[in-house]
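so im writing up the methods section and need the Recombinase record in one place, dumping it here so i stop losing it
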Amino acid sequence: MRDGKRCSGSIPYGYNRLPGDKQTLVVDPEAAEVVKRIFLLASEGKSPRAIAELLTEEKVLIPASHAERYHKEQSNGKKYSDPYLWGVSTVRKILDRQEYLGHTVLHKSVATNFKLHKRKETSAEEQYVFENTHEAIISQELWDSVQRTRKRAGRSSPWGSHYHRLSGYLYCADCGRRMTLQTHYSRKDGSIEYSFRCGGYASRVDSCTAHGISADSVETILLSTVQRISRLVMKDEKAFAEELQRLWLEKRREKPQQSETELKRMQKRYDELSGLVRGLYENLVSGLLPVRQYKQLMKQYDDEQAELEVK
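--- predicted struct ---
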C-alpha cells in the first residue's frame, strides 16, 4: 500500500494487467480509445446520458462485455442483457476515475454493515492517491476541463429539489429496481405534479421499459387497499386476526434457521477480521504499512469485531 500497489482485484476499464505482474496496469488500446472519447465528449458538454446513448447507438461494447470477450481472466461474471447497452452510471463512473490520469486510488469505500455487506464511498480526503503509478490515458488538462463542465451542469435548477413521501418505497414489478421520482411543472400555472418511473429504464440497465405511474394514482391505490382491509376487519374481525396470526407463526418458524445461518456468517467474519488484524501488524512491523493507515484500519476492524461480540 505504501508504494501505491493495488489492493483490489478489479481492473479499470481501459487497462489490462501486466503479464506476470498482477499489480501493474498497462493500457488496453481499444478500450482506452473509448475512454478518451468519453472524456472528450464530456468536455464538449455532452451529458452522461447523451454519451451512453451515442455509444449504444454505435454498438460499442460495454466494459463487462469487452472484458468477457477479450480478457476473460478479468471478467467478473457480471450479467447484462445487451452487450452494447451503455448505462448512465457506467459513464459517470468512468468520468470519476482518477486512474485514467495514471494514478492509483485506494480506500475508496469502507464497510458500514458486515451483515448486509453494505459499504459507503469515502470522501476525497479519506482516499489514498498515489500519482504516476501507471501510464495515463487522458491528460490532466482534459480531466480538469471535464470536471469543470460537469460541475457547471450539476448546479441545482431554479425550481429547487423535491421529495415525495413515497420516495424509496416503490419498486418496478418487472425488473425489481427502485422507482425514481419525476417532477412535472404545469406551463399554465406552474403547479407541481409528481410521478415515479422505473429506475432500470432511467439508468438504461436491464432493458426495462419507460413505464411509470403518477403519485396520485399510487396514493389512490393505497387508500383503496386500506379501505378494503378495513372492510374485511369490520366484517369478520376474528377471521382477520386468525390470518394475521397464521402469517406471524410462519415467519417465526423461519427465524431459527435464519438465526443459525446468521451466526455462522458472523463467526466466519470474526475469524476473517482476526486474520486481517494479524496481517496489519505484520505489515506495520515490516515497514510495508504507514503508522497512520495502520491505526485507521485497525480501528475499523476493531470496531467491527466489537459489534460482532455484542451480537
